[in-house]
Amino acid sequence: MEKIIVNGSKPLEGNIRVSGAKNAVLPILAASLLTESPTRLLDVPNLADVGIISSVLEHLGARIERNPGELSIKVPDLTQTEAPYEYVRKMRASFLVLGPLLARAGKARISLPGGCAIGTRPIDLHLKGFAALGADIRYGSGYIEAVARELKGAKIYLDFPSVGATENIMMAAVLARGQTCIENAAEEPEIVDLANYLNSMGAKIKGAGTKVIRIDGVPGLNGATHAVIPDRIEAGTYLVAAAITKGQVLVENIIVDHLKPVMAKLTEAGVELVEEENGIRVYGHGRIKGIDIKTMPYPGFPTDMQAQIMALTSVAEGTSIITETVFENRFMHVNELKRMGAKIKIEGRTAIVQGVKRLTGAQVKATDLRAGASLVLAGLISEGETEVSNIHHIDRGYENFIEKLQGIGANIRRVEECVPAGVG
Ligand SMILES: CC(=O)N[C@H]1[C@@H](OP(=O)(O)OP(=O)(O)OC[C@H]2O[C@@H](n3ccc(=O)[nH]c3=O)[C@H](O)[C@@H]2O)O[C@H](CO)[C@@H](O)[C@@H]1O
Ligand SMILES: C=C(OP(=O)(O)O)C(=O)O
């Protein structure tokens, strides 16, 4: 077991480069199951989650060639149509292979993903979509079985603009007969990246990035080469790292439009952000001002940035009100931040953060990916040493996290955690 040691240090300075987006590459890898032709993906981040979905694809019959930042995939035949518990339990996004399997093989058997630390995360909207496309859905022994002799285009209204349901349904619909229309679709940039990838393979998708997506089914897809978009959440995390340490950092490889909701709130908090040709330069001067945040589907403030922004507001001047509307249990970082001296009270889905002048280093535990990132951010400005355990969560979504932060002057390292004799 490893842990991260951070020492609150000087302002961060220099350039930091954002990697390809985890939440774009995962569905894109799943979509590669839709064709027998070779596909090539560029700007692929080296993340634990990418390793897991690659293993799922290989289990289903994919041949994958790995090069730094690149994956070449070929799926001549689907040798399996079942994604067992051992994969899905490691990563919920494995469930995204259901749509492609149904479209290409006419059947799929996938372990139910279950809940996770941040919420129960049901999959009813995915299944409602597949059923509307004509699939017969059955449950049993912890698995979902979906079968369809032929998928037929349909009108599907999502009760909530679920990112995963929009992606899964879109992937199933590209090979369906006729037109599918997804209403109240998620508008996240990762949906657009997936649609661009599918269209470059010959799919006919219009409206991705808006509330209504229309998909005209085609008989088959070709191979394609596609570069994954930069990770807006990783970028946002580094914007906060620069701001919280009152540093001066150029965060490179950003699509500025994707960061607008985060930039608007940082600006409101008094952080100076300057758009440059190759990124955003952050000047963190003066004390951060308290801000109110409500997480919402895109283009609202991303839930995946909520924990990191809470670390920032915990040392802001005045009170901040942070409301989480997307996941019902995404405040697990609060108790850990409190161990570092933050003053935070939770009332239902709202956290009331009373800014303090300083935090102090402590032993804390990452409970999920972004919670882990928020504790590291807090550690960057705490007095003394912070030890973050359970860092496998962080490895899911941040490529070279330690090395990148060291590159802008952070006093941070990864060490092997000593397990006391007789434990474990
Ligand atoms: C791999 C990936 O891209 N993960 C992202 C994706 O997760 P994911 O695709 O799982 O998130 P969704 O947008 O589906 O979930 C949003 C909300 O809808 C609910 N819901 C979802 C599906 C469903 O069938 N029924 C239902 O009730 C969920 O429980 C949650 O409360 O979008 C989230 C919201 O931006 C992000 O936090 C995750 O980082
Ligand atoms: C919640 C996240 O990811 P996932 O949906 O893969 O759990 C995240 O990236 O913050």
From TrEMBL:
Does the keyword Nucleotidyltransferase feature in the UniProt annotation? no
Residues recorded as binding UDP-N-acetyl-alpha-D-glucosamine, renumbered to this chain, are R92, R121, P122, I123, D124, L125, D304, V326
Residues annotated as domain Enolpyruvate transferase: 6-405
**Pathway(s) this gene product operates in, as recorded in its UniProt entry:** Cell wall biogenesis; peptidoglycan biosynthesis
Which sites are catalytic? C116 (proton donor)
- Positions carrying 2-(S-cysteinyl)pyruvic acid O-phosphothioketal are C116
Gene that produces this protein? murA
UniProt source species: Desulforamulus ruminis (strain ATCC 23193 / DSM 2154 / NCIMB 8452 / DL)
Reaction(s) catalysed (UniProt annotation) = phosphoenolpyruvate + UDP-N-acetyl-alpha-D-glucosamine = UDP-N-acetyl-3-O-(1-carboxyvinyl)-alpha-D-glucosamine + phosphate
Question: What is the recorded name of this protein?
Answer: UDP-N-acetylglucosamine 1-carboxyvinyltransferase
Sorted alphabetically, the Gene Ontology cellular component annotations on this record are: cytoplasm
Q: Name one GO molecular function term.
A: UDP-N-acetylglucosamine 1-carboxyvinyltransferase activity
- Indicate the family of this protein: Belongs to the EPSP synthase family. MurA subfamily.
Q: Where does phosphoenolpyruvate bind?
A: K22, N23
Q: What does this protein do?
A: Cell wall formation. Adds enolpyruvyl to UDP-N-acetylglucosamine.
Q: Which Gene3D superfamilies match?
A: Enolpyruvate transferase domain
